[in-house]
Every structure is written in structure tokens, then in C-alpha cells.
Design a protein that fits this description.
Layout lengths: L1 H10 L3 E5 L3 E6 L3 E7 L2 E6 L2 E7 L1 H4 L9 E4 L2 E2 L2 E2 L2 H15 L9 E6 L5 H13 L4 E6 H8 L10 E6 L4 E7 L2 E8 L3 H16 L1 E2 L2 H10 L13 E8 L5 E7 H7 L1 H16 L3 H10 L1 E4 L8 H9 L3 E3 L6 H11 L13
Parallel strand pairs: 1-9, 9-10, 11-17, 17-18
Antiparallel strand pairs: 1-2, 2-3, 4-5, 4-6, 7-8, 11-12, 12-13, 14-15, 15-16
Helix pairs in contact: 3-4, 5-12, 6-7, 9-11
């Protein structure tokens, strides 16, 4: 049996998948990151039947622009699968896109799951990957993968703390000796930031904007704190007036966007504080020396590292290439399966 697994391993393109709420990244063994696309699927409904029209970047372009019979669906919400059937189709599409056509064996897959996901949610992710063509599917918790991708010494007898802010969840974890000592999963992330911006602009300007515009605002002028010059950093945005229904352009500033994000930032800070309060004294001492490492797209929000540093009194660092930390950590686990076996959630 072991010889058979070795032969199949050579013939298949084993892969690691960061199945994110906002984006899906795929790492192929021996090749590195080969795919980074939005977790969006465009579905056409006709006579009760659903047909996949587009997946990934092409489908994202359709969000908010589709006719009545076409839906642009994000099958993951808050880090877990919300639409099992569509998620399976999306994973199948990405596997076919990156799998070596010359190989005929199904790939072995390592896929990450939120630390706060239930056994049912984890099983759903595992079964989706198996149905999509995975020969064997292993799970790894997101904060563990993020810490490995950020280069933290997770297998050593020393404490490390990581805050991974993704699209659907913020994963906060303290790690040591190849395991998660304490973790909390706060179901806020980039999506909740976008929602907060949409609601704020609707309330204050009577203007309705889409998810794409909110994401653009977040990336270009959003900040976790209000600075003296926040009022002078402005951006023109377009949407639909709620007063008369006509297209309208208004100007917003960084101060307003910082105010809109207050509640979301507060929840992330509370999650970090809760993790610190539940950490053993010995590990706390290690974290004082080593600091907190931030990963994920949300860590790129301007001044968020300063907010966390002020709230905790600890040094806070943003990992190198924070957007790909989770998939790189998952990929390293795939490459060094024997050495990092202890970090996997389950084994066959």
C-alpha cells in the first residue's frame, strides 16, 4: 500500500488549498502558488436547473451586473461553506485548472479550515474536496497555516501568536509545540468592513453603493484610526441616490470611513485581548518578547497594527506577503508532511 501511495504521489499534482471567503489560492507541490482567484461562481438558473457559467475572476466581474436568471454566488460565508453544491463546483474548477493534464492520479489535498468551525462544517469542506477529485484530503486550521507561512517556529517549545484577518473571519491563536494552545475565531473580517462602509454611506449620504465600490474605498483610503489629516484624504464615489433613484457622485474622506469601521475594529481587538487573557504565563512571556504577527488581507488596513499595539501594549508586526501566508503555510505542510504531521487536524 505504501508503494502504491508513493507511485500515485509522483503521478498526481498534490495541492494545498486556502479556501477563503474572498479568494481561493492553490499551491501545487513542487511548483508553489499557481492560482489566486476570487471565491465567486456565476450560476444560470433555467427551469429549476442550475448551470455554472463562470468561476473566479470572470464570475467576480459579474457581481451586481447580472440579469435576473444569473446569480454571482459566493459559496463561502464567514469562512465556512454556505452553498455545498456551488462550493464543490468551484473547487472542481480550480483543481482542473491547475492539475497536470499528463497525470492521471487524483491529487492529495491539504485544505485549511477556520479554528472556530464545527465538526459538521469541517466535514462539509472535506467532503467537497473529496467529491471534487481529491484522493486523500487533510485539514489544517487556518491560524496554524498562517503561522507556518509567516515563518513562526510553531513546532518549538516557545509561544507564538498570530492574528489572521481574512474575508470572513479573524483567527487569533497562540501556538506552541506544533499545536494550538488557544484559539478564537471572530466572525468579522474584510467582508464585514465592506458592509460597514456600505451602511455608513447609505445612512450619512443617502447613497447606495455596491460591494466592489466598498472594497475599493477600503483599499484606497480606509484607516483603523482617525488622524489629524484624515479629513483631507478624500475620494469620489458613485452610486444610486436613495432620494430620487438617479446615479450620484459624492466625496467622502478618511475620517468618515474610519468612523464606519469602529465596531469591526473593536471586535478584532476584543478577540486578541481574549486570547491574551487565556494564555498561560510562560507563553505570555514568549509573546512579550516575540510580539504578535498579523496575516491576511485585513492586516493591510492602514494603522490596524498600531491600534492592536496600543490596545495590548505588545509589539505588532505585519507578516511578509500577508495575503499568501495561509496558502504558503498549507503548502509547506504538504511539502513536509512527515515533519509537520502533528499540525494536521485529522489523519487517515
Amino acid at each position: 500500500m505504501k508503494i502504491l501511495h508513493k507511485i500515485l504521489g509522483r503521478l498526481s499534482a498534490d495541492m494545498a488549498i486556502d479556501l477563503g471567503t474572498a479568494n481561493t489560492l492553490v499551491y501545487v507541490k513542487g511548483r508553489g502558488i499557481v492560482l489566486d482567484e476570487p471565491s465567486v461562481v456565476a450560476i444560470a438558473t433555467s427551469k429549476g436547473k442550475r448551470q455554472v457559467l463562470a468561476v473566479g475572476e470572470e464570475a467576480k466581474q459579474m457581481v451586481g451586473r447580472t440579469p435576473g436568471n444569473i446569480q454571482a454566488i459566493r459559496p463561502l460565508r464567514d469562512g465556512v461553506i454556505a452553498d455545498f453544491e456551488v462550493a464543490e463546483e468551484m473547487i472542481k474548477h480550480f483543481i482542473r485548472k491547475v492539475h497536470n493534464r499528463r497525470s492521471f492520479a487524483a491529487p492529495q489535498i491539504v485544505i485549511c479550515v477556520p479554528s472556530g468551525s464545527t465538526a459538521v462544517e469541517r466535514r462539509a469542506i472535506q467532503e467537497s474536496a473529496e467529491s471534487a477529485g481529491g484522493r486523500r484530503v487533510f485539514l489544517i486550521e487556518e491560524p496554524m497555516a498562517a503561522a507556518i507561512g509567516a515563518g513562526l517556529p510553531v513546532t518549538e517549545p516557545t509561544g507564538s501568536m498570530v492574528v489572521d484577518i481574512g474575508g470572513g473571519t479573524t483567527e487569533v491563536a497562540v501556538l506552541s509545540l506544533g499545536g494550538i494552545v488557544y484559539a478564537c475565531s471572530v466572525r468579522v473580517g474584510g467582508d464585514k468592513m465592506d458592509d460597514a462602509i456600505i451602511h455608513y454611506i447609505r445612512r450619512t449620504h443617502n447613497l447606495l453603493i455596491g460591494e466592489g465600490t466598498a472594497e475599493k474605498i477600503k483599499k484606497e483610503i480606509a484607516s483603523a484610526t482617525i488622524n489629524p489629516d484624515s479629513g483631507s484624504i478624500t475620494m469620489a464615489i458613485k452610486g444610486r441616490s436613495l432620494t430620487n433613484g438617479t446615479p450620484l457622485e459624492v466625496e467622502i474622506n478618511q475620517r468618515q470611513i474610519a468612523e464606519s469601521l469602529n465596531d469591526v475594529i473593536a471586535q478584532i481587538v476584543e478577540g486578541v485581548k481574549t486570547a491574551l487573557e487565556n494564555t498561560a504565563p510562560e507563553l505570555s512571556a514568549d509573546i512579550v518578547d516575540r510580539g504578535i504577527v498579523m496575516t491576511g488581507g485585513g492586516s493591510l488596513l492602514k494603522n490596524l497594527d498600531r491600534v492592536l499595539a496600543k490596545a495590548t501594549g505588545l509589539p505588532v508586526f505585519i507578516a511578509e506577503n500577508p495575503l499568501s501566508c495561509v496558502v504558503r503555510g498549507t503548502g509547506r505542510t504538504l511539502e513536509e508532511m512527515r515533519a509537520l504531521q502533528s499540525v494536521l487536524v485529522n489523519m487517515y
